[in-house]
Amino acid sequence: MRIETKAIHSGMDVANPTKDIVPPISTSTIFEIDSEGRNEDDLHYTRLGNPNRLQLEHLLTELEEGEAAAAFSSGVAAATAVFQALNPGDHILIPEDVYAGNRKLVNKVMVRWGLEVDFIPMTDLDVVEDSIRSNTRLIWIESPSNPMMRITDIEAVCDLAHSKEILVCVDNTWPSPINQQPLTLGADLVLHSTTKYLGGHSDILGGAIVSRHQGRIFQRIQELQKLTGAVPSPRDCWLLCRSIRSLPYRMRGHNENAEHLARFLQNHSRVEKVFYPGLATLSGHEIAKKQMTGYGGMISFFITGGREEAIGIVGRSRLIKRATSLGGIESTWEHRRSSEGEGSITPENLIRISVGLEHPDDLMEDLENALADV
Ligand SMILES: *Cc1c(COP(=O)(O)O)cnc(C)c1O
């Protein structure tokens, strides 16, 4: 089946004995068992598993072409499970421009827990190879990266990692499985903040890990999901399944609108440089072309001027909302350095936009107005 069909039908018949076309929200925290403690779907207690979570996990597994998935209450909870599936003393390689929340998670929690870490330019294969140690167990990839859209060759890093029996986890939040499927490029694990495109309407917090194999590492992640308990509620699982039904068509809209806006910005006199994977001017464009089927809804750009001008521009939009995060049907933008706060290395003249599904002409009018000299 093609991905549009999978998005609509996958998971619907899991733990759904009454064959509801739309499975209900299972609010019960407990499930009746036989005298030996069993039941048909192996459901006992909702932290350990429930129908809505099973439906969601089945759906995510299908979308990423994996063998199994585990859903979490947030993207960073999912990342925590991946790191804790390793052992204290293991070494991990993380991109130097990794999502800021994951950088803090590694530095403030996982290092204290005993992981050794190096933050490296993941786009440079020679640096990746030189950074591998005898105790390196995991390489983390985020491509395109935030906010500079650096592109990592997923297949090349996976080949290198696997030659040394190292696992690869790809944070696929930005592209979504519609634009990029890392497991088919050789990755072992895919991470999602389902808060973003998969949720798509800025009203769900969630995360997930999808695994290429049912093997040891995934079993440990699933065990951590149940033992540490950072699980999504049945209602959130249900709503996320509902949202994912339209994901392929939403992503087409995001891709299309962002391509329009990227070209518009590129030709604007107040814009110095545009970072968008679909533009030939981006240094990683050729790799993006090879491993992505669409270029996504995120654009970063440098304006002519500095902090004051950038903040002024962001303040002048009427349609595009000022907000952080991404992936909603509504367009949002931000002066990224202000959002990242202390320790940010993002240039002061960078604006990041999450392009929504409004009519592109309305978005361009709003941009034109905000970029006009005042
Ligand atoms: C938002 C985000 C996360 C973290 O997800 P939460 O759901 O906020 O915990 C991880 N990676 C990327 C790329 C993100 O954008």
Automatic annotation (TrEMBL):
Keywords: Aminotransferase, Pyridoxal phosphate, Transferase. Gene3D superfamilies: Aspartate Aminotransferase, domain 1, Type I PLP-dependent aspartate aminotransferase-like (Major domain). GO terms for cellular component: cytoplasm. One of its GO terms (biological process) is cysteine biosynthetic process via cystathionine. The modification N6-(pyridoxal phosphate)lysine is found at residue 196. Its cofactor is pyridoxal 5'-phosphate. One of its GO terms (molecular function) is cystathionine gamma-lyase activity. Pfam families: Cys_Met_Meta_PP. Belongs to the trans-sulfuration enzymes family. This is Aminotransferase class I/II-fold pyridoxal phosphate-dependent enzyme. It comes from Halalkalibaculum roseum. The lineage of its organism: Bacteria, Pseudomonadati, Balneolota, Balneolia, Balneolales.
